[in-house]
Amino acid sequence: MSLPDCLLIWGGKGKRSDGAQLHRKTGMSGILIRAAISYCREKGAETIEAYPENPYSSKVPDAFMWKGMPSAFERAGFVVAERRSRSRPIMRYYL
Fold first, then answer.
1. Which domains does the chain possess?
2. Which of 63, 66, 76, 81 could potentially form a cystine with 92 if both were Cys, beta carbons 3.0 to 4.6 Å apart?
């Protein structure tokens, strides 16, 4: 799997570089998750764990969603392994 050459580039001090908003809602999360799965498989991992964030409203600030949303991980084949809080499921992918 190859990553697109339009990956988001971050500037210093947490500020996004120009054009960052163009990548929102384009499926980039899914591409990166699948690339991580491929990488872990190549390295011999048996399990991958993720800690995505469930949005608590329809207008959650982007700064709180950097870990991804559970739906993106579910589409990639992750399952909820444990739920210690309503907004932060522990998800696993078994290789």
1. 12-94 (3.40.630)
2. 81
